[in-house]
Sequence to fold (199 residues):
Amino acid sequence: MLRIGATQRYVDPLAAGINDLQEMSKTHEAISKAKTQTWHRILTHYLPLYFPESERFGGNSRSDWFLALLERFPTPAGMMALGQEGFTHEAWSRVGRKVSKARLINDIYETACASVALPIDEDSVAIAMFRMVIAQARSLVRQSDEIERTAHALLSDNRLPAPAHDPRDRADQRSDHPRRCWRPSPGRPPSPVPQVLRT
Fold:
């Protein structure tokens, strides 16, 4: 391995000053995996039972407004119990800044009215478990956002130096691209070189 150069250079994170960035990267990866697993659990288990038509409003695992709305209204029955005006008032602050916000909230309410969800009481243990998973997903979203903000602040203050290039790399690049030499075409005499006219 040493003869063919297939080796790796060990870099001490503390000595290189990247220990914090390395830990944040690993933690962010673990949180992202947990967030994805929790989001898939919501999409594949809870929503098909308690509000299947709401999946089209979800977007992605970063949609905290959707999770906040589900945490307050885990079933369509809770939305219809307040009426359209009451639901709009409760959902307005949770939806956040959206284009055509009123139309979106109205669409969610109409979808709830026509839902085929199971008739589960919001005070049941099953819905309590649903809310617990939603709270877990929201917590993971906040943790991920906090790590990203911290990493952005550290990277904006610290500029890591560019890696040093091995002089042998340039030699290899020069050997891979040999200098082009002019050669006459086979069977064709070389073109005469024009002479400079002297006055």
Observations:
- Residues 125-157 form the longest helix (33 residues).
- The CA atoms of residues 94 and 198 lie 87 Å apart.
